[in-house]
Amino acid sequence: MIRKRTNDRSTNRTQPSSLWKNCNNLLALKQIHATLIIKGFNSNRAALRELIFAGAMTISGAINYAHQVFAQITEPDIFMWNTMMRGSSQSKNPSKVVLLYTQMENRGVKPDKFTFSFLLKGCTRLEWRKTGFCVHGKVLKYGFEVNSFVRNTLIYFHSNCGDLVIARSIFYDLPERSVVSWSALTAGYARRGELGVARQIFDEMPVKDLVSWNVMITGYVKNGEMENARTLFDEAPEKDVVTWNTMIAGYVLRGEQRQALEMFEEMRNVGECPDEVTMLSLLSACADLGDLEVGRKLHRSISEMTRGDLSVLLGNALVDMYAKCGSIEIALQVFKKMREKDVTTWNSVIGGLAFHGHAEESIKLFAEMQALKNIKPNEITFVGVIVACSHAGNVEEGRRYFKLMRERYDIEPNMIHHGCMVDLLGRAGLLSEAFELIAKMEIEPNAIIWRTLLGACRVHGNVELGRLANERLLKLRRDESGDYVLLSNIYASAGEWDGAEEVRKLMDDGGVRKEAGRSLIEADDRAVMQFLFDPKPKINSRGQVS
């Protein structure tokens, strides 16, 4: 929400040379750094400032390298400290901004008004309330509370994770309230769910800019009020890619994927160019819908937008979308073409292969992942690999991986892992072992685990264990028709018709109705829902079947 400063007087930077203007990736930055060392400019303060600024602010993903360079500088000036803190506050690890400030104090370097703004921004992102209050104390100690930029950042911090009373007090004490101040307070109330107060402040704003509108629209979206968000969206005098992305993401999160795709069409029709965030939301919508055709069109648009140089996030989203849409071959192609991969990349393709019956390929990829030095499997990885073992019937291998996650990777099995193991053992007919595994669980088994065991008992005709599983299941829930039907079918398969009739009677007495069967088909680019069979047709007031 805090606006980026295009003319930052804290930098004291001269106009960068053409050498720095052409520095747009980490490799180029390293090459320039090497050149500075060779030519003896590695102690030149102006050159070091540009090097730090490029690493911390300009080049994506270069903040860690900037930290390495910064650690080698004997006496960094206040610009370098501020630049590193600014970059860290915007990075994936904003906690480093607090560490930097501690080092700065220990070295006796006096902070300036920009220092505390970056420090407060880091505390806000981390939601470090106590640390933020300490920083507020430092602001008062150094006398920067009168600075408008620092005051706006204090309002932003207190509005988001500090004390709203303090935020409001600072706001109303301002001799002149800028649009930034108004937006910061509005965002704070909206984030905390007090949309009525946020809207009141928004309506009272004497001047509203694009950020102000985005703040209020975002507040409605995050609180699930898409109708109000849409009304305000339509009223906004101008919109940018952030405005459109907020609405698209809101529809996706609320499960209105088709509406999100329609919003994207509106966005293109008005000439607004999508960015990576847009595409991530839309790929998620396609994955949820299973709409492969639209997913392919988005892939083509992404290829044009990125010129084939996929980011990790977009690559992961494409792999996930293709896997969920059933096109595992294309998911593998995207995976293999990705230059950089993280644990999510591997998880997506391992899980995708597993859930689509390619168990051997999934297990093989897991073995490749284990050999990597920079990526370690996590709890999601083991869900995929145990599912793969389950589909392949590799019981022994599944047992080994279940044991491996705890002993080698120090990952405590959760509910999903136990559910996968019950499924693995159940498919193999090892029902007693599955029951013992559930009994030994350190966490209380949920309904899904008992339902999985019940389903396995149905397949293998184990009446006794099926009855036990159903008893535990009914203690957790009594309104799922499928639970009753499974046990009834177990009795019927064993010829125990009295038991089957008793379960059906229990179901009727409890008022549990079996849902009507239905299927989803696509015709003329539209999804058509057709109901096939309703075992309990409704009788209307006229005695007619409806």
Describe the structure.
The chain is mainly alpha-helical and 546 residues long. The protein has a domain at 239-340. The chain has 30 helices and two strands. The protein has helices spanning 18-21, 26-38, 45-58, 63-71, 78-89, 96-106, 113-126, 129-142, 148-160, 164-173, 179-191, 195-204, 210-222, 226-235, 241-253, 257-269, 276-289, 292-306, 312-324, 328-337, 343-355, 359-370, 379-392, 395-407, 415-427, 431-439, 447-460, 463-476, 481-493, 497-509; strands at 517-523, 526-533. A two-stranded antiparallel sheet has the order 1-2. Strand 1 (517-523) and strand 2 form a beta hairpin. The chain is globular, with a radius of gyration of 29 Å. The protein starts with 17 loop residues before the first helix and ends in a 13-residue tail after the last strand. Residues 1-11 and 537-546 have low confidence and may be disordered.
